[in-house]
Amino acid sequence: MQLKTTHWWKIPSHKNVEELKELEEMRSAARLLREGGLVAFPTETVYGLGADATKEEASSAIFAAKGRPKDNPLIVHIGQKKQLTQITREIPPVAHQLLHRFCPGPLTLVLKHNGSLAQTVTAGLDTVAVRIPSHPVALALLQLADIPIAAPSANRSGRPSPTTADHVWSDLAGKIDILLDSGPTSVGVESTVVDVTGKVPVLLRPGGITIEELKKAIGKIEMDPGLLNQKRKPRSPGMKYKHYAPQGELWLVQGEEKSMIRKMRQLAEQALARGKKVGILTTEEHQDQFRGLFVVSCGRRKEPASVAIRLYDALRRFDEEKVEIIYAESFPQYGLFHSIMNRLWKAAGGRVIKS
């Protein structure tokens, strides 16, 4: 792939959507998207890599830049709810309920598309995943471009998702045209994906909106078998392959809290004795239990949102130190921790040790 000149533009984080739409950098980025270019931009979840979702050549460039398998569909981002009718065949009543409650925000809906999108975006399926982000820079860009934008996470495929512009630059400098930098993202894990094409909505990917919040809004919701049975692959975009992974070998350690921490310490000492460079992924409450080891904190166990925000940055820290084997703390499967554990299990490639 021939290297591009990547422009890194800092965008003020304090401006509202209308103010942002007046900035020349934002207008230039929107114009480049309409011309078929690649723009990385912040959303409330992670940074996305955007291209025109209606053009085969533009959307194919996303796959080339990321090194992403072509059978992995992309999430389409739009700036206004009215754009849904331009790319979908129908919007079921439950979709309207979810849109009213959670959009703009970290929610993606799977709907039947009307054939107006590039086949590379839908991977040849009759459905498309669509969301309206709430980040003002994302909304301003999407409204200025006024076209559906395919935008998976702005990282090399398989790597931890980017929550800062530095992460994007590390992975994609020279492969994209523009990077819009508006500081760290506020949610830290990707959007929740819900399929609303059947009789009962199906959770395909847990994310920034919890299953408890979804049930409160719409009542019954089922879970994709790929989330319940770890031997089956989920159907959601971005979840089919090993994902979110650091370069070192990550192991999830599960069990009662005290025995889990003891087991992590024991495993780390055994790996050190084998000459391995070892890392520990833990929370602030347990940092002191691993003195003498390379420790990265991913937030506070009693504040799940802090773990979500810091998780991907923490995983990238191990790569910076060239850590060979990582032992990670596990979390209970409820609320936002459900989404966090989903990402950790994917990052570990299913490697789990019971304490």
TrEMBL record:
The protein's name: Threonylcarbamoyl-AMP synthase
Annotated GO biological process: regulation of translational fidelity; tRNA processing
Catalytic reactions of this protein: L-threonine + hydrogencarbonate + ATP = L-threonylcarbamoyladenylate + diphosphate + H2O
Keywords associated with the record: ATP-binding, Cytoplasm, Nucleotide-binding, Nucleotidyltransferase, Transferase, tRNA processing
Molecular function (Gene Ontology), one example: tRNA binding
UniProt superkingdom: Bacteria
GO CC, alphabetical: cytoplasm
Compartments, as annotated in UniProt: Cytoplasm
Domain (YrdC-like) ranges: 23-209
Organism: Thermoflavimicrobium dichotomicum
Sites where the protein binds L-threonine: 45, 68, 77, 131, 151, 191
Principal EC category: transferase
Function summary: Required for the formation of a threonylcarbamoyl group on adenosine at position 37 (t(6)A37) in tRNAs that read codons beginning with adenine.
Residues annotated as binding ATP: 72, 127, 153, 161, 205, 244
Database matches in PROSITE patterns: YRDC (PS51163)
InterPro entries: DHBP_synth_RibB-like_a/b_dom, Sua5-like_dom, Sua5/YwlC_C, Sua5_C, T(6)A37_SUA5, TC-AMP_synthase_SUA5
Keyword field contains ATP-binding: yes
Family to which this protein belongs: Belongs to the SUA5 family.
This protein's record includes keyword Cytoplasm: yes
EC number(s) given by UniProt: 2.7.7.87
